[in-house]
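#lab-general

N.A. 3:47 PM
ok so I finally got the sequence cleaned up, no stray characters, all 137 residues accounted for. can someone with queue access submit it? mine expired

B.Y. 3:52 PM
send it over

N.A. 3:53 PM
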Amino acid sequence: MRNALFGVAAALLWAAPGPASAAFTICNRSFDVANVAIGRDERGTVETRGWWKIGPNQCAEVIPDRLRGGPVHVFALDVFGRTLLSGSVPLCVAPGRFVIEGAAADCAVRGHLDARFLLVDTGAAEAWRLFLAPIPE
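B.Y. 4:20 PM
back already:
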């Protein structure tokens, strides 16, 4: 039953502009630890970073500086490796902590894992807060 609350179809995602003190913050309102990776444009190429471990009812500031336009990509797994949040943007991740430059193509060839990230359009906002939560029964 608890597994039915999570997954791509069951993840409730709510995002809103956040306070200026934290540029991009992810809050975990689920019942499990979320392992989160992000991707964003850095110097003309997509760069992915991970993992932030975010406990239940906790938040993590994943981008500490003000947003400067452009999308932020987000991917999340639970502690068992099941997808909590994904989208349609193919980017690379790695099993342990990582920073991968040029993460948009040939992940397996370069020794990385493929993941499908959700594109979060932050528009002109300088700060953003994203919530990951189960859908109530």
